[in-house]
Write a structure and sequence with these properties.
Elements (H helix, E strand, L loop, with lengths): L1 H11 L4 H20 L9 H13 L5 H20 L26 H8 L7 H16 L3 H6 L5 E2 L4 E5 L5 E5 L2 H19 L18 H15 L7 H14 L4 H8 L4 H22 L4
Antiparallel strand pairs: 1-2, 2-3
Helix pairs in contact: 1-2, 2-4, 6-8, 6-10, 10-12, 11-12
């Protein structure tokens, strides 16, 4: 199960190798600690986790930064076990949230978005699918899980909207732009029937065997087109969601409207994208102001 979690961090979350190695080290420490107590990670209680962190502080003499990272590692690991339906509740749920500095998300420039989006061959059945997927990732700001969960009945091309189900199965309605609409239409008309073959499925995006695309499959598709584009930035499916939000706000969109489209419960989560504008303003002062 640890290896599955590591794969999830690398492929789906797009974490760096260094970050994943650190998380893996923290969880291995926990597993070794629990083994001494003759307990498996999935059987651990809150008191076991609490004693583990006392052990880290007292015996390992870890810095506060290392403790904070270990909190993130353990909380993330147990959330993953719950998502895999191996647990119903997390013994780490009451751990204090780690103190961290908010990191600005990676964002692609408009021209970089355009270059990547135009990589798939729109005359090919899989190319049309890929183009429609990337158009939606950027055009609607979807999470990859939301994109792959879409059904044909969630797409309302006549009214230029789609319906998706985000975290906690919360439904939201998002406008579909003209580009996304065009390539979804092409995919539905010319590609999906060929991929679907004789299978009965409502899933919108299908793999070459007519089944629902996996997260790993979608990540590989995106990565293939990023490599072809020649862009050297680290690009994950989430990069398109970040770029969607940033470009909307830079264009003058209302923060509350962007919050609703992203499906953020708290406005403070959406506000991180306004920091990017501030960073650009500061850079402009440095470069162009005589006293910058």
């Amino acid at each position: 199960m640890l290896q599955k979690f590591i794969n999830y961090l690398l492929i789906e979350r797009g974490n760096s190798k260094n970050t994943v190695d650190s998380y893996e080290g923290d969880i291995k420490k926990l597993i070794a600690f629990l083994r001494l107590r003759k307990t498996k990670p999935e059987d651990a209680k809150e008191e076991d986790i609490e004693k583990f962190f006392n052990y880290l502080r007292e015996n390992k003499k870890l810095s506060q930064a290392s403790i904070s990272r270990a909190v993130s590692s353990i909380r993330g690991f147990y959330k993953f076990l719950i998502s895999e339906e191996l647990l119903t509740t997390s013994p780490a749920k009451n751990l204090p949230a780690p103190k961290s500095i908010k990191k600005l998300p990676d964002v692609l420039e408009l021209e970089e978005i355009k270059i990547i989006i135009e990589q798939p061959d729109s005359t090919d059945k899989l190319g049309r699918r890929d183009r429609a997927m990337i158009e939606l990732l950027y055009g609607a700001g979807l999470r990859i899980s939301e994109l792959l969960g879409l059904k044909t009945s969630d797409i309302f091309l006549d009214s230029d909207f789609l319906r998706c189900f985000g975290k906690g199965s919360k439904e939201r309605i998002i406008p579909i732009g003209s580009y996304a609409k065009k390539y979804i239409s092409l995919y539905l008309k010319h590609s999906r029937p060929l991929l679907k073959k004789n299978k009965e499925t409502e899933i919108l995006f299908l793999n070459a065997r007519g089944n629902k695309l996996s997260r790993m499959g979608a990540w590989k598709i995106l990565n293939k087109h990023v490599i072809k584009s020649g862009i050297k930035k680290r690009v994950t499916p989430h990069t398109f969601r970040h770029s969607f939000a940033t470009h909307l706000l830079e264009g003058g969109a209302d923060l509350r409207a962007v919050q609703e489209m992203l499906g953020h419960v708290s406005i403070t989560t959406t506000e991180i994208y306004t920091h990017i504008d501030r960073e650009k303003l500061k850079e402009a002062i440095k470069v162009y102001h005589p006293r910058g």
